[in-house]
Structures are given as C-alpha cells and as structure tokens.
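Q: Hi! Curious about what Phosphopantetheine adenylyltransferase looks like structurally. Here's the sequence.
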Amino acid sequence: MRVIAGKYRGTALFSPKDRAVRPTTDRVKESMFNLISSDIDGAEVLDLFAGSGALGIEALSRGASGAVFADMAGESLKICVANLDKVGEKSECLRGDCADIVLKLGNRGKKFDLIFMDPPYKKGIAARAVAAVAETGILNKGGKIIIERAREDTPTEMPDGYRIVDSRAYGASVVEIAAECTACAVTGTFDPFTLGHEYLVERAAELFDVVHVVFLINPDKQPSMPLEKRMKLAKIALRKFPFEVRIDAYEGLAIDYCRQNKIKYIVRGLRNAADFEYESEMAKWNYDNGGVVTLFAVAKDADISSTEVRKRLSEQADVADLVDEDIAKLL
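A: Let's find out. The predicted structure is below.
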C-alpha cells in the first residue's frame, strides 16, 4: 500500500495485519481522489475510520492543510501513527466510537472540508456517522463526505439536509460523495416542456442546490406524447443550464415522491388568478397530508402553456416562441 500522488508519492505505508481491517485498494483510492481533486488543496480533513490512515495521508500528500485521524481499534491507530511518522506529519489521532468522536470534535468547534468514511462493510455504520456530522455541524459549507461501501449494500441513508451528490462503482466497492444541500421538486406532466417550465426551473435553482423535475404519471390522464419523449425534451431544454437538475418519472402523488427523496419543497408556477386559486388549494393539501411546503413563482409570460403548444401543433403552426429552439425543431 503506497501513497499514490503528491509530496509523499511512492511512500510505502504500513498495513494492518488483522484481516478484519480492509484498507481501500489503490484503484478505488485513486478514483476516489479524482472525484474530489479540486477540493483537496488547503482542506481540513477528518479520516473518521482511519485504519492505517491511508486516506488522510493521501489528502495531506496532495495539499490538504491538516488532518485528524480517528478509529475504534487501538492497533489500527498505532499503525496510523507509524505511517504519519514515516511521512513526517504530526496529526491528531483519536480513539473511540465514530459518533462520539464527531461529537467531541464538534464541541471543540472543529470544522472540516473533507470527511472520509471507510467503515466496516455491511454494518450501516456510515449512516450513523453522517447523522452525527449533520447534528454537530462539523462539515464546512461546501464540504464533502466521502463514503466507501460494499456494492451490494444499499445507498447510505442521509439525514435531512444532506444528499448523495455522486456515486461511482469500482469493482466490489461503491464510492459515495455526500454533501449538505437543499432540494426541491418541480412537478407536472410537461406535455410538452415549455419555456415557461424552463423559467420555473431557473427560479427554483436560485433557491435550491438541486432541482428535481418530476414527471408525475397519472393512469387516468393520457398525455399527447409518450413519457420517454417528454422526458427527452426536458433534458434537451435543461442541458444548457449550469445548475444540477435531476429528471425523474414517478407514478403516484407528488408528496410521496418528496417523502421518498427527503424533499420538503415543491415549486409551482402561477400564470393567472385561476392558477392561484387551484394551486393554493393543492398547496394546503400537500402540506396537510405530506408536510411539503409549496413555493410559487409568477410566470414570466402568462401566454406560454403546454396547452397552447399542443393547439398550435394541431394547426401546424410555429411554436418557436413557446419552447426551447432545439425542441421546436424536433416538434
């Protein structure tokens, strides 16, 4: 096991002899650090299930300004200290339960930009550790939690306000990148996706880190276009924007989608007084039955609607002023 890159590149590290301790493979480690390459320089790092300390030392080698190492096992920490001595780093090493360590660090006012979690597989420990991080607020704004889990394990459960923003599989392992971020849902049938819908998503992105555009499937409603085509058109319209958009389809209620995805806000558009009356009733129902808050955005152009697009298409009229220019060409 060696340091892959940076000032300690090529340094051989001591490894635990206990087979129960599973060091991150070089391939997974290299892939993991590629995902966070722009976040390392000057970062404060917590290697929470440190083992040999390979992840924290790799971060220090690549330019992190400091690191704290923690592990339950005394023997593992001894190896971690030996590896730190080998590269000439003097870092704090703590022994104890992951949640207790996070609590202690939080009480001391410690903050971190990167938190590595490589706990024993198949034990659900990472979820408890992330919950402790959320409770104590030790992750700096814009910081990331890097989790390694077994491929057959379910995704790490996130507390409110935290989300898995990236997930990559490498052989038997999965690397998850989690972060504190807000999310909302923009729901509808989008038959088809219009410039009005684009504007609504843009307004939502001003308030939230992630916008879920959700195509709700109602068996009693027959859209004019197949679901696959409608979703494709939305992807075409939204690909030009720099913010994060997730396009989903869901058969069921909007509040159920929000509950499953831990989303507390829906953003809806208003074109006129009739819209407001209907949407207000729906907003009350969504809150009373699902605890989901509805935020309203006034339409930029009240004349833009999916209904108007369908009407013009039936008349073989131009729709270029109603939809994205690439969509207009396809329609």
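A: A fun detail: Residues 183-330 form a domain with the Rossmann fold fold (CATH 3.40.50.620).
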